[in-house]
Amino acid sequence: MSHNILDLIGNTPLVESRVLNQNPNVTLYFKLEGHNPGGSVKDRPALNMIRAGLERGDFDTNSKLIEATSGNTGIALAMIAGIYGLDMELVMPENSTKERVQTMRAYGAKVTLTPSDIGIEGARDYAESKVNNDGYIMLNQFANNDNWQAHYKSTGPEIWKDTEGEITHFVSAMGTTGTIMGTSTYLKEVNPNIQIVGVQPEDGSRIPGIRRWPEEYLPKIFNPSKVDKILDVNETDANEMAVKMAREEGIFCGVSSGGAATAALRLAKTLDSGVIVSIVCDKGDRYLSSNLFG
């Protein structure tokens, strides 16, 4: 029994693809991060960033915290900041789905929307200006080692344990890159032969939660040596796969998870044998106001 909502973060289910994976010699598992209490994989780094920051004395309940987000990290930070009594402002592009904005506000966070044409980069610039000029403190998920270390401590060990050490390939969309960095670090320690596959949008594609960063915005926590291969996916395929995941696998997920699943299924077709784990980072209910599901 859990006595605290935060105790429910992590230990998410691993389920096997029963329909979409057509290679009988490959097992494809989806790790369902939407089962975290805040609804996404971002609960893990949000909790670690806040707990570690409080323990170090980086901030306290008198501090004004700010963070730029495309959605899921913001929801997780809003939930956890509220539990710790922290003042949290979240900055995101104005074209973010209304479910995300409403959920952050429901948890008590202030939400600031920046012009959609400058994207998440513009939201990051706004947050930086508040830090430089108005005394705010930024958690900075893009450069904060507490982000990837959350996955080193939890996501990686869970996958290793739940596959009984049989995993051969790990597939993850890349946004802040915290998930792939931390999970890769752990999995490579226990078996250097495990292949780490990152997923990014094709040039010109816009997929919420997955980024192809300009050099000046590349997350500082990203270490390319920890990724063996990067696969590009386009927006149409990611959207269509999210719908297929719901209708054919019964897994209700968002577009970034659809992108990762697209890459994982392409990978499965190329292997003689293997065990693939693909991250399903959230649930599809955060996209219902979009036209994703018709």
TrEMBL record:
This is Cysteine synthase. It is an enzyme of class 2 (transferase). Its EC number is 2.5.1.47. Pathway: Amino-acid biosynthesis; L-cysteine biosynthesis; L-cysteine from L-serine: step 2/2. It comes from the Bacteria. The keyword Amino-acid biosynthesis applies. It comes from Saonia flava. Residues 6-282 form the Tryptophan synthase beta chain-like PALP domain.
